[in-house]
Amino acid sequence: MTKKFTAGALGVVLLALLGAGAFLTTMSGQEAGRPTILMGDPAKGELTFSFLDKDGKPVDKLVLQNNVENQVTLVNKGQIPHELRSDLFRLFQFDVEIAGVGEIETVGIRDMDLEPGKQVSFIVKPTLSSKVLDEKNGQVEFEVGCFIPGHYVGGMKGTIVVTK
Ligand SMILES: [Cu+2]
């Protein structure tokens, strides 16, 4: 209960800071050279996640590299709030990055709530053991979902792949 409240409170702070919209972005909301997660893209539907690779090309799954600080942009292109939640962010170093502020350590945060039209960047560094990666042919998958009531069951889920 306490953890949830703390995460929620920080979410509000982050959204307030993000209101300035200081990011340099393309039409899709993508920042140059970074993979992007889109929530509620009108082209796909309100209850969807979709992914762009670092070149802006649509991909089925978001790919992150193991033992690397992956910088990712998260955009809510929908009409209603959504959240991004994954065990990936609970297991590994995960920080939010705000233009003009820098990285904010987010120990204990498991999900990010984002209002419509807002975006945020985050940094995640998966540190899977090479033994596990090798046995799984160099790829380990994690699910992402939006657990605002009705959204996940409505189809709002996707996959992040961690590769060697
Ligand atoms: Cu949602």
TrEMBL record:
SUPFAM superfamilies: Cupredoxins. Gene3D superfamilies: Cupredoxins - blue copper proteins (2.60.40.420). This is EfeO-type cupredoxin-like domain-containing protein. It comes from Fraserbacteria sp. (strain RBG_16_55_9).
